[in-house]
Amino acid sequence: MTTSRAFRPRVLVPACCALAAVTLLAAPARSAPPKQVGTCDRTTIKLIGTRFEEGLVKPKPGSIDQGTSVILTNGVVGISYAFVPAVAASKVGDSVMTCLISVPKGCPKGDERGRVYTTTNLRTQDSWTLPDAQHMCGGA
């Protein structure tokens, strides 16, 4: 009979989030986004697509890039005007570690857009850094 060892993936996270990431690797996925810069959360991917529709495929040369969107089960959203290969390599249901790396200052009251998250897929070990909206707070 063979015995198997638990596989511990190597996770690359920003230095600001390394301590939180080590703590959260063993924790179950939760359902709340990180609230303070430098904090992280282990969660899963809920949806992957372009900015306009579900499904993400690399744009063909000469075609219009529809961008990238990714939604995590904890409510974190990532949006880009460009195709993001690390998101495309991910699958719905993959476990990820997401860390809040910046929050804009001086925003109009009630406009919370512009938070930026770095997310690492624990299966692929690929990371991406994306804002939570197409425009920063106070923008279009």
UniProtKB/TrEMBL annotation:
The name under which this protein is listed is: IPT/TIG domain-containing protein
Query: For this UniProt entry, which residues form the secretion signal?
Result: 1-26
Answer yes or no on keyword Signal: yes
Give UniProt keywords alphabetically: Signal
Lineage of the species this protein comes from:
Bacteria, Pseudomonadati, Pseudomonadota, Alphaproteobacteria, Hyphomicrobiales
